[in-house]
Amino acid sequence: MDLINFRVGKKTISLKILDILLTERYEGNLTSLPNDNPSFLGVKDYMGTPTPIFDLGLILNNQSSYDTNQSLVELLQQREQDQKAWLSELEISVHNDVPFTQARDPKQSEFGKWFYNFKTDNEDLKAILARFEEPHTRLHAIADEILALSSKALKEQAIALLEKEKLTTFTKLIRLFESARDQIILDHKPIIVFTTENGQQPHIGLLVDKVEDNIHCDESDIKPLHEMTNVGFDIDPQTKKMMKGLIKQGDNHSLVLDPSAIFRPEHLKDYAPIETEEYGLF
Q: Are 31 and 43 in contact (CB under 8 A)?
């Protein structure tokens, strides 16, 4: 059995090659229709056939990948503000001769507590985050030196060193925050996987984050549904209908999905496609 793996959040899903018509970049150009299924995004015409599109992020993770990424962007903004607040208090301490109450240990600052525990599968984001440690650690080390100078009545030297590090090390750290947020936004280029039941007409489209690879496995390699709870999957009724089993390859797991288990909404029978420049091209 030949399958293609797709990434959806932190999960990998597998679809039979014979169940796939094609993939295309998701541009958000869908026709909205009333529906009480939160994972139903709308309809797109595929070669004259109105095809319902479902968000696999919502089905599998209870949150769209877009919302997950936006939450991470907002979290990075909060951590940046934490770092700015830390530096601001250092400035106040030096200029006004008041105690510095923020964390001196880089791992105990608000940013440090998050940074040293955060994990991501995004290799590009991981590479950017790896560059945070040097300037962040240096800022905390320099803070000790600045506060020591200030305590010895060498305020001018302390202020000069603080201004120098603010323009260099701190600026570098802020630019890394910006790069990390940009990477999260730019890296998310979701695609629609158009699936089929008869090899010719589309059945549904599934929104995924990206294509990973293709694999070959035997039916015997697919673990049955009841074994999935042993590897930490929370399975809701809609997902249960779709899942054929689990494939384990090394340390990686992928969910084998049967897209025919999601049915086209009843009101699609009355759907009247609107011709646009793109009509009939997909």
A: yes
Rounded alpha-carbon distances, angstroms, from residue 137 to 61, 83, 174:
35, 12, 14
Reported as a single tens digit per residue, the pLDDT across 238-273 is: 666 777 778 877 677 788 888 777 655 554 555 555
pLDDT in tens, 97-110: 999 999 999 999 88
Contact (Cβ atoms closer than 8 angstroms) between residue 19 and residue 204: no
Q: Give the list of residues 6+ apart from residue 35 with CB closer than 8 angstroms, or none.
A: 265, 267
**pLDDT class of 122 with cuts at 50, 70, 90:** confident
Residue with tokens 């525990």: 117
Contact between 159 and 165 (Cβ < 8 Å): no
Q: Using DSSP bridges, classify how beta strands 49-55 and 191-196 pair: parallel, antiparallel or unpaired.
A: unpaired
Distance (Å, rounded) from C-alpha 126 to C-alpha 40? 32
The number of CA neighbours under 13 Å toward the Cβ of 269 is: 3
Tell me if residue 82 falls in helix, strand or coil.
helix
- Which of 68-105 are b and which e, b meaning 16 or more Cβ less than 10 Å from the residue's Cβ? bbeebeeebeebbebbeebbebbeebbeeeeebebbee
CA distance 147 to 32: 59
Q: CB–CB of 150/97 below 8 Å? A: yes
Instruction: Return phi, psi of residue 154, to 5°.
Output: -105, 55
